[in-house]
Design goal:
With 132 residues, this protein is of the alpha+beta class. The protein has one domain (14-131): Aspartate Aminotransferase, domain 1, CATH 3.90.1150.200. It has three helices and five strands; from the N terminus they run ααβββββα. Strand 1 (48-52) and strand 2 form a beta hairpin. Helix 1 packs antiparallel against helix 2. The chain is globular, with a radius of gyration of 14 Å.
């Protein structure tokens, strides 16, 4: 998330806060976050958006991932990433953590949409099993 973010916690719906974050970036990060958001939402029908920790967050029976923006990267942090299969080796950040894993996308990065969709779906299924 950006340190100078104009977005402050309000009672606005999460979708509006996420829209505002994307618009406030006005560069490649906004475009990429919007694209990742669409992919996440399309990955599974039960996914809902929330605004937590001043950042977009996606849930289904628990936290799936957050979408943070920094000067050099857009980062998807998966709450239970260490427990997810990653045959495409998407995770490239927070690899030493025992629970979380992240994907840092730099400007111009290619997004492996199929592999990312499968990772999101695996996170949904893991949350579903954990909720039982």
């Amino acid at each position: 998330m950006t340190k100078n973010s104009p977005i402050v916690s309000t009672d606005e719906p999460a979708s509006e806060l996420i829209d505002a974050r994307i618009q406030s970036l006005a560069d490649w990060r906004g475009d990429l976050l919007a694209s990742l958001r669409s992919l996440i939402r399309a990955a599974h029908a039960t996914i809902v958006e929330e605004w937590k920790w001043s950042t977009p967050a996606w849930y289904s029976d628990g936290l799936i991932c957050t979408g943070e923006t920094y000067k050099q990267v857009v980062k998807l942090t998966f709450a239970k990433g260490a427990s997810l299969p990653d045959p495409a080796r998407l995770f490239n950040s927070s690899l030493d953590g025992k629970v979380r894993r992240a994907i840092d996308f730099r400007e111009g990065a290619e997004v492996n949409q199929l592999a990312l969709t499968q990772l999101i779906q695996a996170a949904v299924e893991l949350n579903k099993r954990s909720a039982r």
